[in-house]
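Summary of Year 1 activities. Much of the first year was spent building the evaluation harness for sequence design. The harness presents a backbone, in tokenized form, and records the residue chosen at every position. We chose the following record to illustrate the format because it has been used consistently in internal testing since the harness was completed.
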């Protein structure tokens, strides 16, 4: 009888340990995705003007969550962003950021605009070719 209780307790302890391990693993995965995910920041006019004044290379990514072309552009932009630490990326939500759309004279989602400081050096709409998007961003360097 004593060994049966010990076995039951051991199995329960293993079950609890397995549950804790799964929770830690899930937390680690969520943390990894939050760190590895794109670092693009929502467009903010003041921050944008500061980046321009500092002479930074800026990519403005105008996208909509329902846009299939934008979904194709997203991983390309994320990869370029990861590989180019000096690039500042701003996301403009096509559905809600109407002031920004007017400011940038954007009529369509999936528009990418590159600035070097205050000067616009390139723009594309609807392009999903990684090499062309890379070439567009390269105009800012």
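For this record, the design step produced the sequence shown next.
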């Amino acid at each position: 009888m004593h060994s049966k209780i010990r076995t039951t307790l051991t199995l329960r302890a293993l079950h609890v340990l397995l549950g804790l391990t799964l929770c830690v693993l899930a937390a680690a995965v969520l943390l990894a995705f939050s760190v590895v995910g794109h670092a693009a920041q929502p467009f903010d006019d003041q921050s944008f003007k500061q980046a321009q004044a500092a002479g930074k290379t800026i990519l403005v990514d105008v996208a909509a969550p329902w846009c299939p072309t934008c979904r194709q552009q997203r991983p390309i932009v994320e990869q370029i962003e990861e590989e180019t630490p000096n690039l500042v990326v701003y996301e403009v939500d096509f559905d809600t950021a109407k002031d920004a759309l007017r400011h940038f004279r954007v009529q369509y989602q999936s528009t990418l605009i590159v600035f070097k400081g205050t000067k616009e050096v390139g723009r594309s709409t609807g392009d999903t070719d990684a090499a062309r998007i890379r070439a567009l961003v390269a105009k800012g360097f």
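The CA atoms of residues 80 and 134 lie 7 Å apart. Quantitative recovery figures across the full test set are reported in Table 2.
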